[in-house]
Amino acid sequence: MSRPRRFLLLAGSGILVAASLALALAAMPIGSSDPNTSTYGYLKLFNEVVALIRNSYVESVSENELVKGAYDGLLAALDGESEYVTAAQYRSLKASPSRDEGETGVFLTRREGILFVAAILPGSDAQEKGLRLGDQVRRIGDRNGRELNLSEAEQALRGPVGSRISIAVSRREEPRREDLELTRRRIALPPPRLDPPQQGVAIVRLPTFGPGSSKALSGILDRLSKEKAGRAIFDLRGNAWGETSEAVRAASLLVGEGVVFKIRDRQGAEHEIKGTGPRKPWSGNLLLLTDPGAAGAAEIFVAAVLDSGVATQAGEPTLGRGGEKEFIALANGDYLALTVRKYLSPSGKDWHGKGLTPSVPIPLDTSLPLKERAGDQLHKAVESLLDREAQPKAA
Predict the structure, then answer these.
(1) In this model, does residue 67 exceed pLDDT 70?
(2) Which CATH number goes with the domain that contains 284?
(3) Which of 23, 97, 244, 328 is most buried, taking the most CB atoms under 10 A from its CB?
(4) Does residue 85 lie within any of the structural domains?
(5) Does residue 84 sit within a domain?
(6) Number of structural domains the chain divides into
């Protein structure tokens, strides 16, 4: 049996066993005296399964492989960001990036042990080579995608500027594998920009929340105010890059100096993050256009603006990257990267693992040619905004 095929079988078994164990432990009554529902009872059962696989499986299997599969399964039952990290991986993750480090422009997510492309950075080689949101990552370099945790995969995509990395993906709509070679580049995160209006609706593109994004957005809002623009769409599709601080400053332009988001820990303690400056005057109709590529800082921005009542969300749900990880040291020198805090909107809504769902759903029309889909979705968002505006008048 080939190594990749064998690994898939082992990992699949490990995930099933460990996920079942994790769910059972989570549901177990604390302090239970029943040996069949105690921690000891579940661990005894787990050890029995490991022993059966080790002694009865058709091929010889090392305990290291089985235990790693179990760790991965336990963490996969939590979310896509929690993971087991070896001591060597931890040192590499914590090392300061070199000055000549570049990136491919691929933002990844992990669901049920599988890596997917969640967003593509504008101006990257990944965009030029035609990588798409939703592509399943089969291989990075010489590593099978299922063998890589999220941190390993993200690290593998980074490297010296000008260097190359091969990546194999499967298309969501086309049952075939495509092999690409991506060149790592140093890419400045693009700021917000004002695109040509459509049917009298201002189109503001927010591709990232990189340095200077809030300042650029402030200038755009000033211009829209001078032009007395009464309708706008903020296009946040694919916005998965940038800093929380920039998102907070950008949201402050619309919500003012109140709470932008909250951070809640396991015990329920909350820490409020407030806006940084006075609110810009905006009284028109505003639509936030999102998709599964909107993640992290973008979700903080969306949640804050929605809670303020300034805007409506349209498009598709966001990715659901709304938590903070900590690396917790283990006795053997390795680490668990666990999500230990969640982000909340000012009203207390969380989105980690599920995303922010639009009140105006506008899915991509996959019957259209690929190059026309994003434009069609934006056009439908414009039509939706105009229709919503006309309804009160008609009434």
Answers:
(1) yes
(2) 3.90.226.10
(3) 244
(4) no
(5) no
(6) 3
Q: How many CA atoms lie within 13 A of 200 on its CB side?
A: 10
- Residue 90 within a domain: no
Say if CB 351 and CB 339 are below 8 A apart: no
Co-location of 173 and 303 in the same domain: no
Half-sphere exposure of 310 (CA within 13 A, CB side): 22
The whole-number pLDDT of residue 52 equals 86
Q: Are residues 284 and 364 in the same domain?
A: yes
Q: Is the pLDDT of residue 1 over 60?
A: no
* Predicted model pTM: 0.86
156 and 257 together in one domain: no
Same domain assignment for residues 202 and 305: yes
CATH number of the domain to which 168 belongs: 2.30.42.10
Q: What is the mean pLDDT of the segment spanning 161-182?
A: 90
Cβ atoms of 101 and 161 within 8 Å: the answer is: yes
Answer whether residue 13 shows pLDDT above 50. no
> Is 89 part of a structural domain of the chain?
no
pLDDT digits (tens, 9 = 90+) for 228-251: 999 999 999 999 999 999 999 999
Find out whether 79 and 354 touch, Cβ atoms under 8 Å: no
pLDDT band at 196 (very low <50, low <70, confident <90, very high): very high
Q: Which domain holds residue 227?
A: 193-394
